[in-house]
Amino acid sequence: MISDSCPKRIKVLHLIKSLGRGGAEKLIPETALVHDQNKFEFHCLYFYHQDQNILDELQAAGIQTHLIPAKNLELFFKIKKVKHFVLEQGFDIIHAHLPWAGILARFVGKELAIPIVYTEHNTWERYNKISYLGNRFTFKHQDVAIAVSNEVALSMRLNSIWDPYRRGGRLKVIVVQNGVNTEVFRRKSVENERIEIGRLGSGILGGVSLRERLGIPENACVIGKVAVFRSQKRLWLWVELATRILKTCPETHFLLVGDGEWRERILSQVKKSGLEKNFHWVGVQKNVVPYLSLMDIYLSTSEFEGLPIAMLEAMSCEVPVVATRAGGIGEVIQHGKQGFLSEIEEWEELEDYCIQLLQNPELRKTMAQAARDRVIEKFSMKRMVSELERIYMEVIKVGK
Fold first, then answer.
1. Most buried in the list 56, 72, 147, 310, measured by CB within 10 Å?
2. CA distance 39 to 7
3. 130/79 Cα distance (integer angstroms)
4. How many Å separate Cα 286 from the centre of its chain?
5. What is the rounded (10 degree) CA torsion for 353, 356, 360, 362?
6. What residues does 42 pair with on adjacent strands?
7. What whole-number distance in Å separates Cα of residue 37 and Cα of residue 64?
8. Backbone φ and ψ of 227, nearest 5°
9. How far apart are CA 326 and CA 320, in angstroms?
10. Can you tell me whether residue 256 is helix, strand or coil?
11. Secondary structure of residue 172 in the 3-state scheme
């Protein structure tokens, strides 16, 4: 509840190309819910509208949303329009996310006396050539670049034309690792799961649990993944591992939450395996906690990552992780404690790690608790938001 008697709030404009259901986008409403909204007022300006979006989450988090239609290169013809919008609204800070919005924010910031904060969610080597070069040539023209992991920060240092650590300019690079609201992301019991499904369903499901609804036997272990279905996730390897695991542990079930351009190829691969009854695809879900609560293992085969939010959410729901050491994953998972890691190109090792956990319930239980403890200690949303608010206050102070 925002008090009418509080002083003028600091107006922060989140700038992002689109509002899909990726980790970078979801962080905007999730951080806003934890921010002190007596001190900060949040808006979000986006440019590409898609059907599966997070508009309702933004609005529920108290964020005012704005759309200026544009795609990629069209953004550069919107600089003047965005500049006028910023002036009309009287924003104090622009916080941009991902390269296209970052490049646009820097052009706007060159003409206005407004602090620019940019969050980099991935390593630069993974961007296409146009966004990579645009990011590189404009990178100096902002106040703070936030890296979501140490690997992302290193990538910025190696690729930036002007080394931000040596030059005396305005730019600072700060690592603020992604966080999760550990109060929201808690494992649900079977009883709570039934209530949740009753609320989400059309009424005909009654007290049917999610496990029953999906056709997963009561005592079957579940290996899962929440992801946007794109090439970096290498979900074809995920399915390949699943089919191998089933040869040793045939009662295991596999749960995929999400959607994307690779959907048809992945579902076709599942069908061709002849093991469809052990696979469950549930599409995009606004509330993933019930699905994470079904999982006994979170399996990730990614080629590259920043610091995956979905993995942190799974850990917060007491799910041990078996994953490639992609991006910031290796900064979170301590091999043998919260799960197991392989090198990116040695993904076949993940099969044995999953089987080891499936066959050892006590080890699974120990790692599950260690996963949640790790998130609470090092990757909580409270810690992340505290660091963001400190950055906001510092750039405003410097700007004055």
1. 147
2. 8
3. 18
4. 13
5. -30
6. 12
7. 13
8. -165, 155
9. 16
10. strand
11. strand
